[in-house]
Design goal:
It is a single chain. With 226 residues, the chain is mostly helical. Helix content is 35%, strand content 4%. The protein has helices spanning 11-14, 17-40, 91-94, 103-118, 128-139, 170-174, 178-184, 195-198, 216-219; strands at 43-44, 53-55, 61-63, 70-71. The strands form two sheets. The chain has a two-stranded antiparallel ribbon with strand order 1-4.
């Protein structure tokens, strides 16, 4: 099995523009389906990122590397916050909570979705505080108004700079992906869209499932799962 893809120079970046939206839809639908299966069976992946996704030339995509995966129960037990590669780490984890659940995987999928659209990571921090501030600069600073209870998290500071939400890059609107993305990136984990409900979002009304026949020149760049 070869190295996993990076969307900047991997499967999405290499395809012709007319294939782009159908591939985005198919990849994300498959990812939500896979993580919904995990969550229904009370498994958190906890390390979703492009490097842990395997795809082939027919458009099948699979989750890989369950080394940080853990089972969970309700109520949620305390878990380590040293999980998920920094660029895909949910704000509740960045703010020090030890009580998290499926929302951490959903946030990571939102970051992956953005990376496929923008062809670059949306929040590429070099430290936990830089990561948090990069999120705040785009999504607005987390407050008691948009995330009740966040001020009580271990790493939350009243002195955080106050940023207002910014408009999303035009590419999100181009692919009619802005509403789905924003529902995946809700600060309050209890209000973040579930994987199962994400599959019912209108963004997927015309999703074309695999196989997606890519041009040969494009398919050569895609990691094989076999």
């Amino acid at each position: 099995m070869k190295n996993a893809p990076h969307f900047v120079n991997g499967p999405v970046a290499t395809v012709s523009s007319k294939f782009m939206n159908s591939i985005l839809q198919s990849y994300m639908y498959q990812l939500f389906d896979a993580i919904a299966f995990c969550h229904i069976n009370r498994i958190l992946h906890r390390d979703l990122k492009p490097q842990n996704l395997l795809v082939n030339s027919e458009g099948h995509i699979k989750l890989a590397d369950f080394g940080l995966a853990r089972t969970f129960n309700m109520p949620v037990n305390a878990l380590t916050h040293e999980v998920v590669t920094l660029w895909y780490r949910a704000p509740e984890v960045l703010l020090g909570t030890k009580f998290y659940a499926t929302g951490v995987d959903i946030w990571s999928l939102g970051c992956i979705f953005a990376e496929m659209i923008l062809l670059k990571p949306m929040f590429a921090g070099d430290s936990e505080i830089d990561q948090l501030f990069r999120i705040f600069r785009v999504m607005g600073t987390a407050t008691e108004q948009n995330w009740p209870g966040c001020v009580h998290l271990l790493e939350y500071k009243a002195s955080f700079p106050k940023w207002e939400p910014k408009p999303l890059p035009s590419a999100f609107e181009q692919y009619e992906a802005d509403d789905l993305f924003l529902q995946l990136m809700v600060y309050d984990p209890s209000r973040r869209l579930s994987a199962k409900n994400a599959m019912l979002h209108p963004y997927f009304d015309d999703v074309a499932l695999v196989p997606i026949r890519l041009p040969k020149n494009d398919a050569k760049q895609i990691v094989q799962t076999d």
